[in-house]
Amino acid sequence: MRRLRWIAAVCLPLGIGLAGCGLTRPPATVEAPFPAQWHAPLPHGGSVASLADWWRQLDDPLLVELIAAAEAASPNLASAAARVAEARSTRVQAGAALLPNLDGTLSASRGVSGSSFGAGGTTASSSTSASAAIAPVTTLQAGLQSKWEIDLFGRLRADRDSAEQKLSSATAKWHDARVAVAAETANAYFAERACQQQLRVAESDAKSRGETARLTDLSARAGFTAPADAALARASASDASGRLTQQRAQCAVQRKALVALSGIDEPTLEEKLASSPAQRALPVVGSIASVPAEAISQRPDVYAAELGVASASADVGSAEAERYPKLSISGSIGRMQIRTSGFRASLDTWSIGPVSLTVPLLDGGARAANSDAAKARYTEAVSLYRANVRQAVREVEEALVNLDATDARATDADSAVKNYQASFDATQARYQSGLASLFELEDSRRTLFAAQTARVSLQRERAQAWVALYRSMGGGWTRAESTPMTSNPATKVATSP
Description:
The chain is α+β, with helices and mostly antiparallel strands. Helix content is 61%, strand content 11%.
């Protein structure tokens, strides 16, 4: 072991000195088109909001439970976690390539050597020496062999840096997949609640029309109402019944989508939905960054695209270094023991070398082509990163506009339903007293039903905008270098070691 330490003491300074000849890489960070300010209504216009407990603002434990179940059942999340594990293994391999490798060897052999003939032929007097010559020989060997590639032009360091960036990017994409699953589950949950709300509206409408049809039919039989009015009332009731059947089917389909997302069996999910209160009002959106760059940088997909640029930059450095010579140093120490006929001898060996230099001379342009391909991938990564930033800005501003618009329309929608309900009640009273026709009643009913349906649709639209804002703002994820990641179901996967 003293010899091994001596070899390392000689080789390490040489390797470190020679490894200083790194090649220049393209910029690992580039500017992105962050606007100076948002061009959309900003709630409060304050500082960066923490979205980590976004769903808990609703005070709806069932939604939080469904999101957790969907994360556990999501194949996209499982695939993203597998890619993180794969990237971590690649990073370990790339880092290990910078260090000397050391292999241990053990071998044993047994055999005979020499001849059964003595120096003077095959006489009986030579039998003793012949027996000694063919005695079995046991050879035992143990050793350590080491090889180290000196990173002359930074190829191995570039590979390590690229693997580091790809690991961080894979981790960010895991978070992005998690945010996407949460948003999709929340949208499905809100759609389920809105469908049930619309179902109640359809049930009330069908019940009202059915009762009108029954009373009109009785009046027609008594001769107080024209047969045409009775036919109109029956047609209206049938129309409402058909819409009710259609709405029930839509709700059944919507519930199956929620079952598929969450992985919870349908009977259990129905019990949970029945025992949970109806959808609560959405909370007021908290403060959002007035400076877009601060908010957009807290999106895992934008961060992953940014790391893609850094990884592509390192890949260019690695491809360029492949065009230059490679230097490697080998060394070994060992011990060999020979045993035969009571005789035993040991031999210690060590060596440094060979020191080999590999110089690329002729490859038909393959290395230059690989370098050009890496540069093209770098250009593509820069373009994708900038496009990702532009798309992120668009998504945030669209969510802000939609949220502001739906908030402004909510008061009008509530007022419309309230006044149409009052108008219908008055028309129904006039109809029952014979002062209004069935046509007036049905027209008033259709208007009320349309207003109720529009209000449910508006509430659903507002919920979608609320979820879209959550997703476009990064879902509460923060960069690892600024704020530690919060605990999650896959902390071991999401947190870099």
